Every structure is written in structure tokens, then in C-alpha cells.
Amino acid sequence: MRIDGVPYRSVWVDSSDPGVLCLFDQTKLPWALDILRLTHRDQVAHAIRSMQVRGAPLIGAVAAYGLCLALRADASTEAMERDAALLADTRPTAINLRWALERMLTRLRNTPASERVAVAYQEAAAIADEDAAQNEAIGQHGLPLLRDVATARGRVNVLTHCNAGWLATVDWGTALAPIYKAHDAGLDVHVWVDETRPRNQGAALTAWELGKHGVPHTVVADNAGGHLMQHGMVDLAIVGTDRVTRTGDVANKIGTYLKALAARDNDIPFWVALPSSTIDWRVSDGIAEIPIEERSGAEVTDVTGRLPDGQIATVRVAAADSPAANPAFDVTPARLVTGLITERGRCDASAEGLRALFPERA
Ligand code: MRU
Questions:
Q1: Which of 207, 237, 245, 353 could link 249 by a cystine bridge, Cβ 3.0 to 4.6 Å?
Q2: What pLDDT, on a 0 to 100 scale, did the predictor assign at position 362?
Q3: pTM of the full structure
Q4: What is the pLDDT, as a whole number, of residue 247?
Q5: What is the domain-level CATH number for residue 102?
């Protein structure tokens, strides 16, 4: 995607030094476009854990490149297994992280240590390229949903939660890919952007991305979605996901479930967009089996923003001695999901629906 006319991906290797992995520091957006230059496994682990880089498909690709950096330091089998485990441990909910590292290990375990670095870079690049291509395909498969509404009503209003745009993937995004395709096709598309407390990925990242691409959008408080739906101001919701079970349950940023409930109560289609790397074929009951990341209560009690003098500051909004809980994701049961938009097309959020699109997994 483009920032001020310049094409970027969310992760890339420095063209003059393969030992440098480049990423946007997402904790600095929307105030500054800072590029991190990472050279060590521990820096990559820190970037994922601290959410300098986040979004399920992106952390998978970044972890794969993180393993490349680790192998440059030590390509022995023992070090490789240890470093992959260390990277996999950085965040628990998004399955893409483990999927990418397992894919890397499957390729590298059969590769002599002397060739591992070169092969690892090839595999990480394949993961990144496939993610970009799959997300663009998600955009194509989601586009008709927006086109149908725009054709009937002149305009299409989409509600989204968290950031599932190109910043959260290698390129295009998942939930935002159909929106970018619709906008580029000349449809009148407007996006309601949930602010997405506590980390504000919607207000800080989704709104920034959409703005850079020229897509009309409005940031709303997380609690506004139900009201907007009751008043006919939302035609459909599209969200991304961090893990989908083989039965179609959807883990995504905390608050997604409440939007799905409101959508069901108002007969509004609730779609989930994902590349197949986000499907956990080993899990069937999302509520019971998907681990939900618990993050620091400080993310709830405190808010970070820019002061009028341009300084970035974190201020406390909760009473000084109140403790806070911070589950970072929730699970939306498949029955509340209208359908899944994948790189192979759309399907019901069900075991049958997923099996029909991915018969090799049957
Ligand atoms: O905690 P985050 O910001 O990594 O959570 C990200 C989300 O919940 C996204 O919606 C999800 O990863 C889909 S990404 C295309």
C-alpha cells in the first residue's frame, strides 16, 4: 500500500544489508512514521511482545524473519529450536505466529546447518509474499458484498473493529482489503472505525491507514456501534481475526463479540476476513480452547496521546488505586458470524463451510 504516494509493505529486509529487518513502529503511529531496524532475535521478540508490531498475519511473517536473524547468529539445530520457541512465546492468541514458525522449522529441520540461513530467508519471503497475495484475494472476494449494497443504496457503510488493515498484515489487510478494493473501484464507501480501547488500534492505526488511502471514515467510541446499527447507519460489519477454529468460531480483539451480538439483533451481516494461516485446524471450541492474552492493566487505566505541544504523553484516566483487568481478545461463536472471507472465497462459518473451501484439510 502507499503512504503519501510511496509504496510500502509492513515488513521488509534492508536491500543493502540482509541482517537488518525493517518495520514500522506501530506504537508511534499516527504521530510519527518511525522505522525500526532490527538485527537481533531479542529485538524481534521485544517488538512483537510490546506491540511495536502487531496484527496476526504480520507477527507471523515478522517471527519468520526473526528466526532468520537468529540463524545468522547460530544455525545449529539446538539454537534453531530454542529460538523458534522463544519467538512463538511472545504472544499467545494469534495462531499465525505459531503457524509461520512451524512452517519455517518444517523446512529447516531437513536443511543442513550450513544452508539454513539462505533457506530461511527464502521461506520467510515466501510467507510474506503469500500473505500479501492472499489478502489481495480476500479483497476481491469481499468486494461483491460492498458492491451489492452500494449498487442498491448508492453508498455502503462498513463498521470495523481494531486494525485489520495493511499494517496488521504484510500488505492489503484482511478486513480492510475489500474496503480498499471497493474504494479503488470507485464505490462510495464509508467506514465506521471503532476506537478499540484499550490500545486504540482503530483510532490510531485504522483511521490513519484509511486516511492515507483517501477512504472516508469516522472514528467512533467502541460503545457506539449498537446505536449506529439501530439507526440504519451500518450496512455490514467486517472484522479481522487472530484465530478461527475449524468449526468457525472467531477470536479477535476484545469487543468483537459485542459487535457481533449487536449486528445479530439488528439483522446486519457480520463478516470475518482471514487468510488460511489464521485457521487453527486443531481446535474446535473457540471459547474453551483458544488462549486469551491477558495484558497489563496499565493499558486500561492509562491512555497515550499527543499533547498540544507535540509531545507524546501517557496519562492515567482511572482512579489512582483502582486495579484493572485486561483480556485482550474475545471469541465470537460461529453462530453469530454471517460468513468468512478467505483467499479462496467466502464460506459459512462452520466446519462444513471451511471444509468445502479447504478440502485438503478434511
Ligand atoms: O492485539 P493486536 O493489535 O495484535 O490485535 C489485532 C487484531 O485483533 C486484529 O483484528 C487481528 O489480528 C486481525 S489482523 C489482520
A1: 245
A2: 80
A3: 0.97
A4: 98
A5: 1.20.120.420
Distance CA 175, CA 178 (A): 7
Ligand 1 neighbourhood includes 206 CB (under 6 angstroms): no
pLDDT at residue 160, rounded to an integer: 99
pLDDT bucket at 108, cuts 50 / 70 / 90: very high
Same domain, 350 and 234: yes
Q: Is the pLDDT at 41 greater than 90, yes or no?
A: yes
- Give the pLDDT confidence score for residue 122 in this predicted structure: 98
Residue 77 has pLDDT above 90, yes or no: yes
The verdict on 91 and 163 lying in the same domain is no
Atom of ligand 1 nearest to the CA of 199: 3
Cβ atoms within 10 Å of 232's Cβ, excluding its own: 11
List the residue whose alpha carbon is closest to atom 6 of ligand 1.
55
| Nearest Cα to Cα of residue 170 among 23, 6, 5 | 23
Which residues have C-beta within 8 Å of that of residue 168, sequence separation ≥ 6?
10, 54, 55, 56, 57, 58, 162, 174, 205, 240
Closest ligand 1 atom, CA of 274?
15
Q: Is 165 in the pocket of ligand 1 (CB under 6 A)?
A: no
206, 347: one domain: yes
Q: Which pLDDT value is given to residue 5?
A: 85
Distance 257 CA to ligand 1 centre (A): 14
The CATH number covering residue 199 comes to 3.40.50.10470
- 185 and 306 share one domain: yes
Tell me which of 86, 112, 130 is where a domain ends: 130
**Which of the listed residues 114, 130, 146 is the one where a domain comes to its end?**
130
Does residue 211 share a domain with residue 109? no
Same-domain status, 102 and 165: no
Whether 280 is catalytic is no
Please, what is the Cα angle at 297 between 295 and 298, to 5 degrees?
A: 110
Q: What is the DSSP letter of 341?
A: E
Distance in Å, CA 279 to ligand 1 centroid: 14
